[in-house]
Q: What sequence folds into this?
């Protein structure tokens, strides 16, 4: 039996290192993108004390390459996270499926007994239509996983923990 | 390409629910829609390479610039294993905690207890080839937290762990044996299974003590292991 998880609590910032929000800091080739969004709670209030982590493949869809692909970022006073990274490529799925480019997002915070997991997809990717995970999500809720390019190279996905427009979270 | 081996699903009762009514901060933060059960792909079965050259270890919280922190010096050590009993080698373990007076070195902590200039309260260590980790610190203090009238958190140290796959990623808390606050704590007691709860309590370990210098506590951590069969996991996908 795996060890029980416990909340990260309000003081997790003791392991916050702002430079971790840039996955390219150890060196990476390719155009930088920003991943950003605001996290809100069940009343629509910004979640200002969350720890957000991302994990994704490199632009060729590889997880075993030199690219770090991992970032950690705090939400600010407006509930906003912002990462600098590279846009991932398509990744092999189970069987012979091909997954659309995506980013795994983990959210830890006070009030979350364990982290929430979700994925960020990129609007306009043809593979979104056949992605095996998106296919498991009721169509009406799929937009909660799909980031929009709100400025050149800036992909925005707001996250709602609870209530209207609640983000699809994953049982991984 | 062959499919990666999925991780086993968590045993019932072993993990706290998102909706834990006695812990007030969960009320507006837990999802109300059902979670989507995700098959394990490379995204879930791989993990970032977190290596000491890029993430320098710091295994001694008990002093800052050569000056000793106040409090009972302790050594905490243990093994990180998976559910199959295999050691998890080279895993990055981050820990953070309050000082001996029950105050965090954090601007958000306004508890009326003294800060200790010689205690920052965070460390980063890596497991060895056999899954062992070890760090030195001081025993933290309990602190009040306003969840309910006269609420006090039991003494604890926060842990953050990365395994070989992101599905093993976890954050937890280590508690101390005999703490009278444990039966009163909504966070500890949010874990439904009593045995699972009690495994969050470290054991005093005389073998880890250093005579004339520090007490020792043992705390082992189990990360998710491989599913018994790949098919079992995908039945519901």
A:
């Amino acid at each position: 039996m795996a060890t029980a998880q416990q909340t990260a609590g309000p003081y997790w910032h003791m392991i916050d290192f702002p430079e971790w929000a840039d996955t390219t800091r150890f060196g990476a080739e390719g155009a930088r993108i920003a991943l950003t969004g605001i996290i809100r709670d069940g009343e629509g209030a910004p979640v200002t004390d969350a720890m957000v982590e991302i994990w994704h493949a490199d632009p060729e869809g590889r997880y075993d390459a030199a690219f770090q692909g991992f970032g950690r970022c705090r939400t600010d006073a407006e509930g906003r996270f912002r990462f600098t990274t590279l846009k991932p490529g398509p990744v092999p799925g189970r069987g012979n499926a091909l997954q659309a480019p995506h980013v795994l997002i983990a959210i830890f915070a006070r009030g979350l007994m364990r982290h929430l997991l979700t994925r960020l997809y990129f609007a306009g990717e043809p593979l979104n239509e056949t992605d095996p995970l998106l296919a498991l999500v009721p169509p009406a809720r799929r937009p909660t996983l799909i980031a929009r390019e709100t400025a050149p190279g800036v992909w925005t996905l707001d996250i709602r923990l609870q209530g209207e427009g609640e983000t699809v979270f994953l049982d991984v | 390409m062959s499919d990666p081996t999925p991780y086993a699903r968590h045993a019932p009762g072993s993990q706290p629910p998102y909706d834990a009514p006695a812990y007030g901060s969960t009320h507006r933060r837990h999802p109300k829609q059902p979670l989507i059960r995700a098959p394990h792909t490379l995204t879930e079965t791989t993990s970032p390479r977190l290596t000491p050259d890029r993430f320098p270890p710091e295994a001694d919280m008990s002093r800052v610039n050569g000056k000793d922190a106040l409090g009972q010096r302790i050594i905490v050590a243990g093994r990180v294993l998976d559910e199959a009993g295999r050691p998890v080698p080279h895993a990055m373990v981050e820990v953070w905690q309050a000082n001996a007076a029950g105050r965090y070195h954090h601007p958000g902590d306004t508890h009326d207890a003294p800060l200790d200039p010689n205690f920052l309260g965070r460390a980063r260590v890596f497991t060895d080839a056999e899954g062992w980790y070890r760090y030195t610190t001081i025993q933290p203090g309990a602190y009040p937290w306003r969840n309910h009238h006269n609420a006090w958190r039991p003494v604890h140290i926060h842990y953050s762990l990365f395994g070989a796959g992101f599905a093993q990623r976890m954050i937890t808390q280590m508690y101390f044996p005999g703490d009278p606050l444990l039966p009163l704590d909504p966070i500890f007691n949010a874990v439904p299974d009593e045995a699972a709860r009690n495994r969050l309590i470290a054991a005093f370990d005389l073998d880890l003590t250093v005579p004339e210098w520090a007490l020792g506590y043992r705390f082992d951590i189990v990360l998710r292991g491989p599913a018994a069969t790949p098919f079992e996991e995908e039945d519901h996908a």
User: Anything to note?
Assistant: Chain A has one domain: 12-160. Chain A has a mean pLDDT of 97. Chain A touches chain B through 66 residues (CB under 8 Å). The longest strand of chain A covers residues 32-40.
